[in-house]
Amino acid sequence: MLHVPTSLGFVVKPREEIPLKLVERFNIHLAPVIYHGSEGAQDVARRFVNEIVDVGRKIEQ
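Structure (tokenized):
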């Protein structure tokens, strides 16, 4: 049986030595990101990748 993703979730957890002000400055959300969609599996997977890439770009700044 093939798994079909219908929701996603992730949490960004910075290392202890990274100041909270720096995380806030780059608008990196520390609250869990949860999405329960009724879209197809490709749309949920695409949304997950887009969310993760967005966080990565903010961290890269």
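The chain has one domain: 6-60. The helical segments are 20-25, 41-60.
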